[in-house]
Specification:
By secondary structure, this protein is mainly α. The chain is built from six helices and no strands. The chain is flat, with a radius of gyration of 35 Å.
Length: 168
């Protein structure tokens, strides 16, 4: 049903060493075996752990599903990398075929310079935006600092007035 590699029982979330030892006594030695069992089968196979049977079986299945998904992603990434290498190799072959310099070879250089200039402008704009945001946050903090003493003064004057009114 799941991954071919044997996974230790202690890798299953919520399943500690003592429960793993009890399962091994019942004949369940890997998370793969646990995930392949139905909940009812687990209860009959290992009756001393029947209270947590559903949790253990579901946790083992979740673990193996996560591992299988990560394996699939790795395989897809590897296939994409090999596809990209094939494309790059074919592009390299095309480039090596045209060995004589002509006018079309000189054209990309200005384009590269333009791209660099555009990148530099974007970076400068990002930096200036960040600087502006920092200045705004500083202003907001400064404004908060300025407002807080005023509140304290008002609170002090209110307290004094309340004391005077109580005395009178």
């Amino acid at each position: 049903m799941f991954s071919d590699q044997p996974i230790p029982l202690t890798e299953v979330r919520g399943l500690g060493p003592s429960a793993a030892a009890k399962m091994e006594q019942c004949g369940i030695s890997t998370a793969n075996q646990l995930a392949d069992l139905s909940i009812a089968d687990f209860k009959t196979t290992c009756p001393q752990l029947e209270k947590r049977a559903e949790a253990y079986v579901k946790a083992a299945r979740r673990l193996l599903n996560r591992l299988n998904k990560s394996i699939q992603v790795e395989l897809e990434n590897e296939s994409q990398v090999t596809d990209n290498k094939k494309k790059n190799n074919s592009e390299l072959e095309v480039v090596t075929v045209s060995s004589t310099p002509d006018e079309s070879d000189e054209a990309p250089e200005p384009k590269k310079k333009e791209k660099k200039v555009k990148k530099e402008k974007k970076e400068k704009e990002k930096k200036s935006k960040k600087d502006n945001e920092k200045k705004k946050t500083k202003k907001v903090k400064d404004d908060k600092k300025d407002k807080s003493p005023k509140k304290d003064k008002k609170n002090k004057s209110d307290k004094k007035e309340k004391k005077k009114s109580k005395k009178e």
